[in-house]
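## Example pair
The file below holds two records. Each record gives the amino-acid sequence first, followed by its structure token line.
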Amino acid sequence: ETAWLLQLLIDDPRPVVLVGAMRPATALSADGPLNLLQAVQVALSPEARGYGALVVMDGQIHAAQWVTKLATQGVGAFASPGRGPLGWVDDVGVHLPTACGSRQVPFAELELPEQWPQVPIIFGCVEPEPLVLSACLNAGVAGLVFTGTGAGQLSAGEARVLEAWAGQRPLMLRANRCGSGPVHSHPEDERLGLLPAGSLNPQKARGLLLLASIAGLDCMALAALMTQCQLVS
């Protein structure tokens, strides 16, 4: 999530490399020192220029938009589902075989406030309690991310709550709880004030909504930005 926010905010050809460790320094075969060394190698590599924010863990180089943590244990806990890493680091050096291409930085000029807006994530399940969604709407949240079942669908109860809501709707994105795979537009989206999150997982969809809310974007402007930045197909 931190890498994704930096990707949306920092307009600089120099890479911003995030790194961590899955084992403490006191453990046998601690992974932190090697991860740190490889992160520095990537940051210094001319090949990494233009990619924006990167995550380097376990010898792999991941793009901020796709990387996520998939396991609580193990040095290979970070991955980019459906995409794979951009490259890798080994004894020879840094390998980034995929060209980075042009990069959109939609919030490079955004001034961040001291207090950020409220953007909850509502986790989808079979017959969820509508009171959670109702409470969020009544609280006047700036945005909502639905972690829908299947391909990001809302439940019938959640749809009824949105239909009955007479107030101003917050910015709302539909993501999925599957861990990978895109969420495409649905015929009901426009009527309910929803946008598909594309291939963004719920956490990264929330990061996008946080910045969009600070920037004062409405639903149409956010949809245009997501299309321009190729976040949805």
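Second record, same layout:
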Amino acid sequence: VLSIVANEEEVHDILKAVGELEKVPKRMVFVGASKITRALLSGMRPSMRSRVTLIDKDAETCKEFSERFQEIMVIHSDITDEDIMQEEQLIGSDLLVALTDNDELNVITASYAKRVGITRSIALIKQNNNYIRMARFLDIDVVISTTDTTVESLLRYLRSTNVSSVHTLFDGQLEIIEYFIPKTSPLIGKALKEIDMRTKALIAGITGSDGKSHIPTGNSTIEADSTLLVVVKPEHTEFIETLFGRNR
């Protein structure tokens, strides 16, 4: 067992050296310069912000964001313009995050992004939770509803865990997180009772690679390409991420 102590800025190089490099998004598109966008960018390191292209239709807002976050590229445009997705700066992006104040626009934008070749997409839902169920049929990877923990939930996804969905309960007191288990996970073949979660989380459901879901027992085993439904308090998510989510 090799234990390494390092500054956060050095983790990327160390993981690369030992062959465990995380698949972080290389080029990201943020649609909508909202309050959540501002908070999200503020929570990112400059090196991560440099991968972001922001699109917003308000000229003054674009100017404000370009001055506040000088590492990002800002495009003044309406995302409903059918030509915007063909912009040189957007071609080859591997993640789009729709963050406008319009739920319907976020869902449509995130779905359309997948159709034009962007690898993954996230839609923010602020008002109408019916869109959460709808989004599952539109090839949107992650839907996040607005709560006090929204920014941290988005940052958790962008930092490249195996998160496929994040929801909150009881005004943010609990998070429900779906973790995808890749074929390389060291947890494959283990029974749940063998995994020490230190009473910090509960696995409430498992969906197998065949798409069938069930409520697990301690004897249930983890299989490759399955998805775990984990209930956890926000203060324990870092521990659970280390356990389940470090390799996308």
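Notes on the second record: Helices lie at 11-17, 35-42, 46-49, 59-68, 103-115, 130-135, 150-158, 237-244. Residues 25-148 form a domain with the Rossmann fold fold (CATH 3.40.50.720).
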